[in-house]
Amino acid sequence: MSTAPKIVNRREFLKTSSGVALFIGVSGMLPHLISCKDTKGIKQQLQKHELTAWVQITEDGEITIYNPAAEMGQGSMTALPLIFAEEMDADWSRVKVAFSPQEVAIYGSEGWAPGSKLMFTVGSRSTNSYYPVMRKAGAQARYVLLNTAAQHWEVPISELSTNKSFVLHPATNRKISYGELVAVLVLPETIPDFSPEQLKNPKDFQLIGNTIPRAEIPAKVDGSAQFAIDIKLPNMVYGILERGNLHGAKPTLTNEKEILAMDGILKVIPLDYAIGLVAETLEKALEAKKMLKIEWGDAQAIGYDSQEIYPTYEKIANGKNTGKIIQEIGDVNTAMRTATKTYMADFKNDYVYHAQMEPLNAVVQVSANLKNAEVWVGSQQGVDPKLGIPDLLGIPHENVNIHLQYLGGGFGRRSMNDFVIETALLAKEMAPLPVKLMWTREDDIGYGTFRPLSLQRMTASLDKNGTITGFSHTVIGDGGNLVASGSRNDHYDIPNQLVESREASHGIRLKHWRAVGHGPNKFAIECMLDEIAMGQGIDPIALRRKLMAKSPRALATLEKAAEMANWNSPSNEGRAKGVAFVEHGSLGTGICEISVDRSTGKIKVHHFWIALDAGVIVQPDNVKAQMEGGVIMGMSSVLKEQITIVNGRVQQSNFHDYQLLRMQDIPESIETDFIASAERPEGVGETATPMVACAIANAFLQLTGKPLRHLPFTPDRVLQVLNS
Questions:
Q1: Partner residues linked to 376 by β-bridges
Q2: Whole-number average pLDDT of the chain
Q3: How far apart are CA 351 and CA 382, in angstroms?
Q4: Angle at CA 126, nearest 5°, toward 193 and 355?
Q5: Backbone phi, psi, residue 545, to 5°
Q6: CA distances from 500 to 324, 329, 480, 489 (A)
Q7: Buried b (16+ CB within 10 A) or exposed e, 184-208
Q8: Residues near 319 by Cβ (< 8 Å), separated by ≥ 6?
Q9: Which strand (E) or helix (H) includes residue 346?
Q10: Which element (helix H / strand E) includes 722?
Q11: How confident is the model at residue 22 (pLDDT cuts 50, 70, 90)?
Q12: Does the structure show a pLDDT above 70 at 69?
């Protein structure tokens, strides 16, 4: 285990800066400057200013750009600084990247809601929300350097240009490096608030859109990358919680004296839903956990069986009381009454667990006087950039320092900070000792936060010409927007639409899971369209082409994917293709080719093709990796993954009974092609995953003539459908 990471602070800065550096930070959207030419001056400046900046430039030309988003393998550690460097005209070979402080006033994005800022790496919004922020900040940094060069050379700023960390004066064939300008810096009286029209034209991009090696990969390869699980501090102790697998049940420990007498056990800390242990070592904490004797109270989930709930959901769908309206266009009831033909089907999905690679963990150290706290964590951040610690401990926000680490997988789970709060509760009891809390894999599955179980009732009406006139979608499940998101049809021209959500709660812990409601809902929507197409004798692509006539960008992805997959050419014997369209920020059409072993019920995905319109593609190679990862994660959840609840208790405990996709199950090829666009970048991390279920099910329908309507498509379920 490695030691605690170096934190960018005043003392460390003075050791490493060689006495001269330029910091360009922000106040709202405009930079402020910290620059000094001697150590004494730097110290005076740093007493006046927090060390918060978008960029640091040293005299030798080294550039550090600060990344405000979490890095969990999705590439934000490169994409966001790259956007800044593009507008700054920085030499990327001289750029280093570091996590910014978790200070929302400075580093927050306004891409969530007007007038509010957040540091929240969820919903595939990081690149989209920070794109204008980083471009403007990079342009302002460039302006500061241009202004300095203009005054240094006594020439109009309009005569200057920049290229790869140099300011150029073509009229006199002079150039000066950004590093050299630090020593002669002139602070401008005002800095332009650049409008989008004043920024670079995308056709002039030098970095964006090219293959750029990711900034954090070398450290991940050589093992120097710092994850929270790597942190080891002096005098650190270890925490473990026993939470059980009945969500919400209150524990009563009956052998506390026996536990406290065990070697290395420092404290027993009861919580409302768990028993906490703090020990000298993790091993001793885990050993003591096995010896806990706990009586568990009742909980809402008692009596709930997840596989037996669907008939109840069907009754809710049959009810006449309308739920929460998500979308309403025209008059669905009239369309149904006047229809020549109607289609109706129910689609189901079971609970799914996040299965992130790095188990949940955090390190918290609370000062002896309980007035300050330090937190080391891999977090997707949150509405509170200090992760709830100030309110929990009753200390000011400025007294909580969050040291963001790399995340070994998030998928939405680490946007929930329950594990950080738990660590802080233990650390408060052990102050001033630092406490590392570890969740075991069994903890994370048994007391997991799952993508909700739900049922989608789909009803469609067609007129005498076979045109879809009405489309009704009723979602039944727990979790509000967790089950309702992704249920709209903004790119399909259907005159009468109704989308509603009906609540059903069972006391099971729920959370955002990659693409959230898009997985189950796009599965239902896209499969319903294919069932209609088959019933009407229409090609599924032709049906979607008609529906997308008024959405040219969506239609372009459909046409491109069909071309990539040679849709009109028949598949080999025993294989078939299926199509699905998904919007999740970006627009994408996916087509897969499958076969089915009719003796075992196992589905094999051979090829997957994706056509994507994500606006400006900042990192093409990384976007392709996101699509590939999204498809593989989607396949795992569609073909393998399943959490079941019996009498309120989670039945799975580890990867022996929570199955994941194996290497031998991945497709022979996954191909991604981009639709060229100069539009603002859209999210790509959650576009591929939800298209997998519907594409596979639609290919299965083409191959067998039978629909798959219950996720996951386990072999026994496939055999049941084949034999029905």
A1: 363, 403
A2: 92
A3: 24
A4: 165
A5: -55, -40
A6: 5, 12, 11, 13
A7: ebeebeebeebeeeebbeeeebebb
A8: 502
A9: strand 341-349
A10: helix 715-722
A11: low
A12: yes
Helices (H) and strands (E) in the chain, counts: 21, 31
What angle, 0 to 180 degrees and rounded to 10, lies between the N-to-C axes of helices 689-704 and 715-722? 30
Q: Are 698 and 593 in contact (CB under 8 A)?
A: no
According to DSSP, residue 274 is labeled -
Lowest mean pLDDT among 50-59, 395-404, 446-455, 458-467: 50-59
In 3D, which of 467, 580, 602, 478 has the Cα closest to residue 532? 467
Per-residue confidence (pLDDT) for residue 3, from 0 to 100: 46
CB of 431 within 8 A of CB of 95? no
Which among 620, 670, 649, 680 has a CA at the least distance from the CA of 128? Answer: 680
Q: What are the residue boundaries of the structural domains of the chain, listed by start?
A: 10-208, 228-295+360-438, 309-352+450-722
Return the CATH number of 10-208, one of 1.25.40.10, 3.80.10.10, 3.30.365.10, 3.20.20.70.
3.30.365.10
**What share of the chain has pLDDT > 70, as a percent?**
93
CA triple 288-292-297, angle to 5 deg? 150
Task: Give the H/E segment covering residue 649.
Answer: strand 649-650
The residue assigned the tokens 């599924």 is 540
Residues in the chain: 724
Give the helix ranges, DSSP H, for 514-573. 518-536, 540-547, 552-564
Per-residue pLDDT reduced to its tens digit, 446-479: 999 999 999 999 999 999 999 999 999 999 999 9
Longest dimension (CA), the chain: 85
One-letter amino acid of 503: E
Hey, is 145 helix, strand or coil?
A: helix
Amino acid (one-letter) located at 514? R
**What is the per-residue pLDDT for 58?**
85
d(CA 450, CA 478): 11
Amino acid identity for residue 187 in this structure: L
| Domain 309-352+450-722, CATH | 3.30.365.10
pLDDT at residue 108, rounded to an integer:
87
Angstrom distance (rounded) from CA 87 to CA 77: 17
Token digits for 234?
Answer: 């002096």
| DSSP H or E stretch at residue 174 | strand 174-177
Average pLDDT for 698-716? 98
Evaluate whether 10-208 and 309-352+450-722 have a shared fold. yes
Whether the bond into 156 is cis, omega within 30 of 0: no
Which residue intervals of 565-681 are DSSP H helices? 620-639
Question: What's the CATH number for 228-295+360-438?
Answer: 3.30.365.10
3-state secondary structure 58-94: ECCCCEEEEECCCCCCCCHHHHHHHHHHHHHCCCHHH
Tokens 């959207």 correspond to 29
Gap between the Cα atoms of 391 and 376, Å rounded? 18
The residues, ordered by sequence, that sit 6+ positions from 249 with a Cβ below 8 Å of its Cβ are 273, 296, 297, 298, 299
Question: 172: Cβ–Cβ under 8 A, 6 or more apart, which residues?
Answer: 153, 155
pLDDT at 24: 59
37: pLDDT strictly greater than 80 = no
**Amino acid residing at 334:** T
